[in-house]
Amino acid sequence: MTEQDLLAQPPADYMSEAQQRFFRELLLAQRDELQARIDTQFQLLREQETNSDLADIGSAEEQRQWQLRLLEREKKLLDKIDDAMELLARGEYGWCRETGEPIGLQRLLLRPTATLCIEAKEREELRERHKRAV
């Protein structure tokens, strides 16, 4: 099934077996790609040579810290993909965890790990902004 086929399906088919299979394959492909990137980055970190020049050491350490932050973000995304796969296994994927309403196919295509519908996500962001402002 292609994205166009998915979007052409009637609303009554929301999270049908075919749609769940589509998102399972999408999530697995993203997971494999992400895991490969993480593995490559870890390998690059292990292979970095140490220098005796203080400027080179400082620059290398800054680069290493940047790579570690990137790896941390990618690990968090990997965890979200695993969580989405678990939701799929339980038959809860595609439904807003706050309202129980459909998240929507277009939103899931853009962010397959989404757990909130647009309205719930906007409310969450407003609450976060309000907490930061206080």
Automatic annotation (TrEMBL):
One of its GO terms (biological process) is regulation of gene expression. PROSITE patterns: ZF_DKSA_2 (PS51128). Signal peptide: none annotated. GO terms for molecular function: zinc ion binding. Keywords: Cytoplasm, Metal-binding, Zinc, Zinc-finger. SUPFAM superfamilies: DnaK suppressor protein DksA, alpha-hairpin domain, Glucocorticoid receptor-like (DNA-binding domain). InterPro entries: DksA_N, DksA_RNA_pol-bd, DnaK_N, Znf_DskA_TraR. Residues 19-86 form the DnaK suppressor protein DksA N-terminal domain. It is found in: Cytoplasm. Residues 91-125 form the Zinc finger DksA/TraR C4-type domain. A zinc finger (dksA C4-type) spans 96-120. It holds the Pfam family zf-dskA_traR. GO terms for cellular component: cytoplasm. Its main location: cytoplasm. Interacts directly with the RNA polymerase. Belongs to the DksA family. Transcription factor that acts by binding directly to the RNA polymerase (RNAP). Required for negative regulation of rRNA expression and positive regulation of several amino acid biosynthesis promoters. Also required for regulation of fis expression. This is RNA polymerase-binding transcription factor DksA. The gene is dksA.
